[in-house]
Amino acid sequence: MFVDSHCHLDFPDLANNLDEILGNMQQNNVTHALCVSVNLENFPRVRALAESHDNLFASVGVHPDYENLIEPDAPQLANLANHPKVVAIGETGLDYFRLKGDLEWQRERFRQHIQAAKQCSKPLIIHTRAAAADTLRIMAEEGADSIGGVMHCFTESWEVAQQAIEMNFYISFSGIITFKNATLVKDVARKIPLDRILIETDSPYLAPVPYRGKTNQPAFVRYIAEEIAKLREVSLTEIAAITTNNFFSLFKIA
Length: 254
Ligand SMILES: [Zn+2]
Ligand SMILES: [Zn+2]
Known about the structure:
One of its GO terms (molecular function) is DNA nuclease activity. Keywords: Hydrolase, Metal-binding. The chain is of the alpha/beta class. The protein has helices at residues 12-15, 18-27, 43-52, 74-80, 104-120, 132-141, 158-166, 183-191, 221-232, 236-250; strands at 2-7, 30-35, 56-60, 86-95, 124-129, 149-151, 169-173, 197-199. Strand 6, helix 7 and strand 7 (169-173) form a beta-alpha-beta unit. Helix 4 (74-80) crosses helix 5 (104-120), helix 5 (104-120) packs across helix 6 and helix 9 crosses helix 10. Residues 91, 127, 152-153 line the site of one zinc ion.
């Protein structure tokens, strides 16, 4: 069995075909998926998905790409996370690729999320793009190691992966790992301890080869597992089992 540790089933491309998407998961032995929140306005939809399906879970958080909204504070986030199917805080982090200029608000928002995770004892889902040094610095300054979490859709170097692992974080690989030119990510996947690996689709984005460019969906997470198995020269069954175990232990799902 496979688990998709990061998807956006509330986004229209997927939400409008939910029955088909869930059927495809079942057919491909993708047993569980974590629906990740990107802003508080849509959070009730994410939570509703988790409430109405045993095999779906939710997170709560505000993505760094969403500008000009009322900033969530730590107690508010921790309060929203106080729900049996809400298993993480995020996605949160820094994105210096999509947005430019004075991004102090992004860093402050990230700090609030780390504090919330510590307050409610739920792990973090961290998004970092073109901002690895600041991301690691703020994680260290706010004591993110005491709660841990996952660096989602990982595209950074082995050095960055090692520092995140030292702070008690998992590394999650998306469909990018199946792209021919993704040499850095493939290198990380070869070196990382197996007990630190997660897999995700980040659907509807980033469909893996052979669906690159199409709408992604949780059923496609198996292609990411296949690529990791190939890179490490181990069986697909082994990668499926370890990534599933890692998911359940990180998100404390019984
Ligand atoms: Zn992300
Ligand atoms: Zn995402």
